[in-house]
């Protein structure tokens, strides 16, 4: 896909042409479907792969399909039909897990997934879901894990949990095998037991207001089954914080931002809701949420309530400057690695030691995937176009590729950051601290 640029009130977004067309088509006030109709078949293939990876396929499927190639229309119809069937598995999996947790005396709330319906997505059948995310109080995590093991789930030790806010992923794969279908109705769901809603040990700062989310949890019902979830105001807060977390960790945000934009657009004139939000969430939490609100408006053109506009306008000057200059870097990172998030993350930190830790962690990564893990094989296959390499050679290729990509991104990040902040010398002092510390 050729690089393409989208302009808005922030620095232009440079992404492949097909991705730019998708974002324009999903715009909430002025959708432009015509750009999608102009794509070539090979661009459609790349876009569908991008959407599968970025959880946007079902959003694409809800758009008018005039001008879409017939094979794309059929593919999207199949995905929607498969996911509707898959939701039956989602419900059955949750019921079984909830019963096991209840028997063990473990309280929980469901986060993300089907809880986003109907405020963020019209129907849970129109949202891809590969796992169940359950938050349990930290002291109950062990009991929850044992309860799930009692119904056949086993912890996955093949992935890294260094920056995770959940316990080891619980799987129960049975005889199922991957069939190149992200919406396979028979694909088992994994379960992630979250021990926090905001990970202070990873972000290096605390959001105190989130500690009260648990006390405001509520019972809800969807499609004939009940579950405990966060309150509507706190569900919004958690989604916004999850977007901020993913920005900091270079994880995907586009589908989360789109769902947030839908909510903000629908609730733009709901003064009662936003008055409750303003009273419930303190200024610190609102400033974190405002970052995500800014992304939603910039990417998808949603209408905003005055309370939301005020929160964005109340952001510290440095953060507003970063958003205007670097906000789109988090989207561009899906096709070209960058670490521009570093300067936003730094703006939230007060402690010099925390800033130093973040600089080291970001610019000189020390965590690597284990040998024979899917990530190692994927990187090796992509770099060598071969799946026949010995595991040790695969791992060597992975390490070289990781070192090269991170080195280039780190150098580029320092250069771009220096160019941005040189006039005030603030960044220069931070870099000096980092360089001095690196000699110890």
Describe the structure concisely.
The protein is 53% helix and 8% strand. With 440 residues, it is mostly helical.
SSE inventory with pairings:
Layout: E1 3-6, E2 13-16, H1 17-25, H2 34-37, H3 41-54, H4 57-61, H5 70-103, E3 109-111, E4 131-135, H6 141-149, E5 154-155, E6 170-171, E7 190-194, H7 200-203, E8 218-222, E9 225-229, H8 232-248, H9 254-266, H10 271-280, H11 283-300, H12 306-313, H13 317-326, H14 329-332, H15 341-347, H16 352-363, H17 374-384, H18 391-421, H19 426-437
Parallel strand pairs: 4-7
Antiparallel strand pairs: 1-2, 3-4, 5-6, 8-9
Helix pairs in contact: 1-3, 5-6, 8-11, 9-11, 11-12, 13-15, 16-19, 17-18, 18-19
Radius of gyration over C-alpha positions, nearest whole angstrom: 22 Å
User: How far is it from the N-terminal to the C-terminal residue, by CA?
Assistant: 45 Å
- Biggest sheet: strands side by side, in what order? 3-4-7
Quaternary assembly: single chain
Unreliable spans are none
Shape: globular
Counted beta strands: 9
Largest sheet: 3 strands, mixed
Pfam families: NTP_transf_5
InterPro entries: NTP_transf_5
Protein name: Putative nucleotidyltransferase-like protein
Keywords: Transferase
Q: What can you tell me about this protein's structure?
A:
The chain is mainly alpha-helical. The chain has a domain at 353-437. It is built from 19 helices and nine strands. It has helices at 17-25, 34-37, 41-54, 57-61, 70-103, 141-149, 200-203, 232-248, 254-266, 271-280, 283-300, 306-313, 317-326, 329-332, 341-347, 352-363, 374-384, 391-421, 426-437, and strands at residues 3-6, 13-16, 109-111, 131-135, 154-155, 170-171, 190-194, 218-222, 225-229. Strands 3-4-7 form a three-stranded mixed beta sheet, with helices on one face. Strand 8 (218-222) and strand 9 form a beta hairpin. Helix 13 runs antiparallel to helix 15. The radius of gyration is 22 Å and the shape is globular.
């Amino acid at each position: 896909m050729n690089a393409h640029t989208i302009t808005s009130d922030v620095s232009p977004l440079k992404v492949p042409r097909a991705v730019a067309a998708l974002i324009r088509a999903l715009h909430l006030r002025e959708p432009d479907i015509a750009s999608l109709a102009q794509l070539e078949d090979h661009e459609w293939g790349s876009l569908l792969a991008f959407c599968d990876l970025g959880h946007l396929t079902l959003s694409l499927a809800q758009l008018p399909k005039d001008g879409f190639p017939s094979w794309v229309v059929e593919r999207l119809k199949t995905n929607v039909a498969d996911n509707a069937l898959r939701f039956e598995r989602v419900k059955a999996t949750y019921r079984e897990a909830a019963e096991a947790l209840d028997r063990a005396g473990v309280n929980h709330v469901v986060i993300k997934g089907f809880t986003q319906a109907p405020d963020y997505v019209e129907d849970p059948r129109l949202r891809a879901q590969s796992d169940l995310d359950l938050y349990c109080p930290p002291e109950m995590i062990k009991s929850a894990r044992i309860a799930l093991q009692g119904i056949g789930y086993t912890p996955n030790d093949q992935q890294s949990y260094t920056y995770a806010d959940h316990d080891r992923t619980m799987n129960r794969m049975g005889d199922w095998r991957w069939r190149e279908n992200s919406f396979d109705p028979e694909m088992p769901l994994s379960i992630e037991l979250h021990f926090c809603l905001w990970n202070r040990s990873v972000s290096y700062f605390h959001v105190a207001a989130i500690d009260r989310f648990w006390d405001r949890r509520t019972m809800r019902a969807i499609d004939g089954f009940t579950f405990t979830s966060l309150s509507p105001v706190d569900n919004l807060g958690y989604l916004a914080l999850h977007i901020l977390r993913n920005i900091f960790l270079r994880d995907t945000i586009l589908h989360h931002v789109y769902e947030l934009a839908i909510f903000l657009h629908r609730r733009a004139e709901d003064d009662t809701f936003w008055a409750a939000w303003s009273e419930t969430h303190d200024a610190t939490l609102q400033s974190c949420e405002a970052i995500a609100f800014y992304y939603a408006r910039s990417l998808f053109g949603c209408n905003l309530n005055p309370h939301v506009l005020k929160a964005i306008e109340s952001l510290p000057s440095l953060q507003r400057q970063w958003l205007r200059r670097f906000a789109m870097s988090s989207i561009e990172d899906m096709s070209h690695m960058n670490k521009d998030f570093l300067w936003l993350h730094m703006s939230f930190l007060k402690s010099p030691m925390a800033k130093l830790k973040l600089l080291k962690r970001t610019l000189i990564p020390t965590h690597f995937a284990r040998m024979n893990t899917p990530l190692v094989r994927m990187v090796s296959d992509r770099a060598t176009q071969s799946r026949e390499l010995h595991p040790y050679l695969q791992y060597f290729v992975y390490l070289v590729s990781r070192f090269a990509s991170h080195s280039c991104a780190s150098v580029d990040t320092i250069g771009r950051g220096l160019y941005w902040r040189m006039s005030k010398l603030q960044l220069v002092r931070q870099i000096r601290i980092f360089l001095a510390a690196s000699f110890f």
